[in-house]
Design goal:
Blueprint (H helix, E strand, L loop, with lengths): L3 E3 L5 E8 L3 H13 L3 H4 L4 H19 L2 E5 L9 H9 E3 L6 E3 L4
Antiparallel strand pairs: 1-2, 2-3, 4-5
Helix pairs in contact: 1-3
Length: about 110
Amino acid sequence: MHCLTKLKNGQYKNKCQVRLIMSETVSYFQEQLWQESWENVFSTNKVNSSFNKFLSIYLIKLEASFPDIYLSNNRDKGWITQGIRRSSNYTSWDRTSDLPICSTAP
């Protein structure tokens, strides 16, 4: 999944909006729907009004059970220090022997 979010300065950042759906959240969602009274949905004879009331209740329960979270595709890893980055600029790996080959970079 690849998502882009536009920032205020006009640049884009890799960020995805997703919902976490796990067995615990599904159980919570089912419980919330089960406990709803639904009387105001069935109390009207108008189909559009009933559907709109149903949809409103359903979406409120959905948002409460499965909140949106944002995932970032940021490639910058916090554990990689400046020293490791500098060192990796001077060392490359020989793929055939898996031994480091040191190069002298200016």
